[in-house]
Amino acid sequence: MAEQRYYWLRLKRDFFKRHDIRIIESMPNGKDYLLFYLKLLCESVDHDGNLRFSDQIPYSEEMLSTITNTNIDIVRSAINIFTQLGMMDILDDGTIFMNEVTKLIGSAVDNDNANRQRRFREKQKELALQERYECVTKNNESKSNSKNKSKSNSKSEIKTLIEDFGWGDEEFISAFIGFVEMRKSIKKPLTERAMKMILNKLEKLADDMNTRIAILNQSVLHSWQDVYEFKTENKTKEIAPVVVTEDETERLLRLTKGMQE
Questions:
Q1: Does pTM top 0.70 for this prediction?
Q2: Nearest Cα to Cα of residue 209 among 249, 178, 165, 251
Q3: Sign for the pseudo-dihedral over CA of 98, 102, 105, 109
Q4: How remote is the C-alpha of 75 from its chain's centroid?
Q5: Is the CB of residue 89 less than 8 Å from the CB of residue 99?
Q6: 198-240 pLDDT per residue, tens
């Protein structure tokens, strides 16, 4: 005769004080979500946390709505919420795994078969977590590559903008990109409209490209948000020597001698 087993849920005294439970309860229809959650726990308790209609057929949302006597809209919203909060996992074969059952389950018998099932369940959970980690890692790498590509496109757009002004000088383009990067570093990034205004102002400040480059470098050096007329270093004016002729020297000597007498 097969050994009969009895199961129960062991809810902790602070179950309804848990952060995830409180968050759900505070939502519109929150109490309906929690009642549906408890029904799923009870339904999965003698299946080691797994919920399936049969080995061949997983539960659909409509089937869960029927067996728990829950509105189908509540079922759909609740499954989405439980999955996001890590209270439930949907495995690749459609099996619903209730993560909390392993912590809450109680059994009248604890034999080798139960231990094997528990180890199998834990292994499945580890594999699910590993798949989730790999998925997150790939998404982060994709975002990083996208960010680098966006940065490259940004420099390309700046170059195109400058060339639209008829300025294709590579040294000027490099200086202007340096000015744009400086504005980013001081938390004052330039919009495309602002870049055009800077280019228009440079055109008015200087006619030659070298002076325009010097103006940009001047602003980068001082972390100025705008561009200004290029300031050259002030040089001390040389005083021309005074040349005194021989006749003038004799006149000064006579004048000096007369003042002494």
A1: no
A2: 165
A3: positive
A4: 32
A5: yes
A6: 888 888 888 888 898 999 999 998 899 898 988 775 544 455 5
- Which residue's entry shows tokens 């300031």? 231
- Quote the CA–CA distance of 152 and 18 in Å, as a whole number: 47
In 63-81, which positions are buried (b, 16+ CB within 10 angstroms) versus exposed (e)?
A: ebbeebebeeebbebbbeb
Written as six digits, the tokens of 3 are 């050994």
Tell me the pLDDT tens digit for each residue of 146-167: 555 444 447 888 888 888 777 7
